[in-house]
Amino acid sequence: GIASARMSRATDAATGAAFVAIDDDDGNPTVVFATLAGDDGALAAELRAMCANVVDGRFAFPERRAAARERTTDGATTTTRFTFCLTRADGARTIGAVRRVGARRAAAALTRTARFEYHDDVLRHAMTRAMEALDATARGTTRELARGDALWEYLDRTIGTRAPTAGTTADVGLPWTEFAGVATQSVRLRAPDLRKEFNGGIKFTALLDCGHVEAVLALFAALVTERRVVLTSGRLEAVSAAVHAANAALYPLSWQHIFLPVVPEAFLDYLTAPMPFLVGLHSSLSEDAKRLPCDDVFTLNLDDGSFTYFEEDFEAIPSGPFTLLRVGLLREIERTRGEDSQAVARVFRTFFSSVLGPYKQHIKGVVAHPPPRDAIIADSLWLDQRGLELGNLKHAGILAAMRGTQMYEVFVRQRLRMCAQVARKTGFVPMGDEIVDFDLEEGELTLSDLMMRGQALSEQFASASSHAFSVGSSALRETMRKAKKAYSTSKTIQGMREAFASKRSQLAHSIGKLREKSSEDLQAKWAEWTDEGTAKNLSFAEASTAEAPVPAPPQTQSSVVEREAVEVNEPVAMSEPIVDSLASAPTPAPTLASAPPPRVESVSGAANMMANLMSFDDAGDTLAPVTPSKRTGATMADVDELPNLIDM
User: Fold this and answer.
1) Which of 122, 208, 237, 281 has CB 3.0 to 4.6 Å from 338, enough for a Cys bridge?
2) In sequence order, which ranges of 36-162 are alpha helices (DSSP H)?
3) DSSP string covering 266-285, please?
């Protein structure tokens, strides 16, 4: 991987390199390529297949054709530089450094080492000769450069078997300027030593220029937990550089899953993969990517700084190292905008030093300390993950989250093998402080570092205070809301009580009037009925029957009420003649005169029932019940009073 390139001692001479130049003429490309594999025929065949994949997959033209043409206003002068990545059969990555002129022509150098600036210089000096080779090739055909060709000789001296040794500077003669076997022109190239220099020229500028530091922190949290990550931009150079910078931010860890600095249109289906990936995407393909069935994807738009994030990722990261990371990035953005790659890398490495540094205290041997089933084991050594988390409780959350990632497992296995290698040389296994891990060692603290850490502590305290104030304010607002709601509800109930009390008074007044009128009318009607002798004339007694007994006085409504009063054990005052008549008179014959008056008492009963229903149990609000002794009948003529009751 790019970030762990310092651990690798492989050279281009041992792994081979290739070069391909393409003239993309509306899907009918003209290709010139070269393989630099020495005498290894199998490696040369693998490199030829790789060059074919670059052409067929359009890795040198990853955006839409229309977008490429729109960006190009002057095909002779517009130059685009970016990188892509291929994966070999053994899982090793091959980096393709591209230099494109206009929208149609491009050249790419394919190597196993990521010497970005070095390879760009090599291509810059070879572009003119490469374009001439394309012009000399038949349109729509593919041609391989032969050994001895001037361009092939230059490539072999720069990226092939005769390339400069890492860490040295060499003057490379340009073969096409040779006269009598001597080059008249040469270029000075410096090959970086990736074991000593940080990633061969990776710049964090493209990543830190996305708009604000919070976007970078959200990206870092997604990477540490191995999310699926997509970076987008309308500039290929920016998006590919940002993807490499994101991978470099993980050092001394390295991304182990799908890694594509730019995704060509033909490879968009990679975004539906269920495993983690770190890819760059030209903005012309963003709409197509949104239509793909992919969930839980972190996206960062490098052009406007917009991004998505997952809250649980931030919750797992300890606040102390995370605050220090934020302050350090802000300082580097203000100081050099990320141009100082070493300084930015040190800020990220400080985070991992704080979180992963204590691992050295928890390496154990499988013989003396049998490991659990889920332990990471390498060369008879294993890491006590539980002990690491318990001994560093503040970082237990992020350690548990990283435990399931592949890059963490690779990191631990590398350290275990390193300790085993030392044990084989010295005869004892290094433990604790005996282990020297330069990738996690922090250098001498400068005054600037101390000021940065003080600022981080101050910011962390301010954040904690702000959070406490926010929680308190939220609780107060919720309490006030509930109080207002309760007060509003109490006012509503009070208003209902007052409304019912007002209606209850009106109803009681109407019922009283109805009772008085019903009693007067019924008494007058009965007196008229009995005085005129109408009851006698309409007798239904048979003629053959003996003289009818004197009819008993009719049972008025008061008599009916008297029976009710007896049932409820309440004394009711009755007139004396009525009592005597009831006691002495025999049962009368069924005549109209002896029949009870019509059942007009239902009006009064309905009124009393409504009054009872409208009553409240509250003290002082209860309507006084009407006693049975005061109830009187009502005539059907009083039905005119009913509309008043209904209106209420």
Assistant:
1) 208
2) 41-56, 65-71, 116-135, 150-158
3) GGGGGGG-SS-EEEEEEGGG
The pLDDT value recorded for residue 277 is: 94
Beta carbons within 10 angstroms of residue 536's beta carbon: 13
Spatial neighbors of 50 by CB under 8 A, at least 6 apart, are 18, 86, 88, 94, 110
Residue with tokens 């435990």: 403
9 alpha-carbon distance from chain centroid: 41
Largest CA distance in the chain: 170
Cα 283 → chain centroid: 22
Quote the tokens at residue 56. 């067929």
Cβ-contact 584, 620 below 8 angstroms: no
Tell me how far apart the terminal alpha carbons of the chain are, to the nearest angstrom. 87
Q: Which residues of the chain have pLDDT under 50?
A: 1-13, 73-75, 445, 447, 450, 533-603, 611, 613-648
Which residues, other chains included, contact 530 with Cβ-Cβ below 8 Å and sequence gap of 6+?
A: 554, 593
Closest to 452 in 3D by CA, of 341, 335, 338, 342: 335
Long-range contacts of 247-250 (CB under 8 A, 24+ apart): 247/1, 247/2, 247/3, 247/278, 248/2, 248/3, 248/198, 248/199, 248/202, 248/204, 248/341, 248/345, 249/3, 249/204, 249/207, 249/220, 249/223, 249/345, 249/348, 250/3, 250/223, 250/224, 250/348, 250/407
The phi and psi torsions of 17 (rounded to 5 degrees) equal: -150, 165
CB 397 within 8 A of CB 320: no
Cα 62 from Cα 68, distance rounded (Å): 9
How far apart CA 67 and CA 381 sit, in angstroms, is: 54
Burial of 96 (0-12, 13-18, 19+ CB in 10 A): buried
Q: Are 31 and 55 in contact (CB under 8 A)?
A: yes
Residue-wise pLDDT tens digits, 3-17: 333 333 334 445 789
The pLDDT, as a whole number, for residue 285 is 93
pLDDT, position 397: 87
Joined tokens for residue 124: 């810059």
Q: What contacts 415, CB < 8 A, 6 or more positions away?
A: 359, 363, 383, 435, 437
Q: What is the dihedral of CA 543, 546, 552, 553, to 10 degrees?
A: 40
* CA distances, 363 to each of 200, 218, 366, 394, 619 (Å): 32, 32, 10, 20, 81
What CA–CA distance (Å, rounded) separates 37 from 16? 5
**C-alpha–C-alpha distance, residues 328 and 324, integer Å:** 6
DSSP code string of 365-389? ETTTSPPPTT--EETTEEE-HHHHH
**CA 383 from chain center: how many Å?**
33
Q: Which of 109, 129, 141 is nearest to 23 (CA)?
A: 141
Residue type for 495, please? Answer: G
Instruction: Evaluate whether 63 touches 284 at the Cβ level (below 8 Å).
Output: yes
Both structure tokens of 297: 């994807």
Q: What per-residue confidence (pLDDT) applies to 595?
A: 44
Percent of the chain with pLDDT over 70: 69
Give the integer Cα–Cα distance in Å for 222 and 229. 7
Sheet-wide strand order for 228-233: 258-260, 277-282, 228-233, 297-301
| Amino acid identity for residue 318 in this structure | P
For residues 286-315, one letter each, b for 16 or more C-beta atoms within 10 angstroms of the residue's C-beta and e for the rest, the string is eeebeeeebeebbbbbbeeeebebeeebee
CA–CA distances in Å: residue 613 to residues 463, 600, 606, 616, 617: 62, 21, 11, 8, 11
Compute the distance between CA of residue 54 and CA of residue 110 in angstroms, rounded to an integer: 10
Predicted local distance difference test score (pLDDT) of residue 512? 79
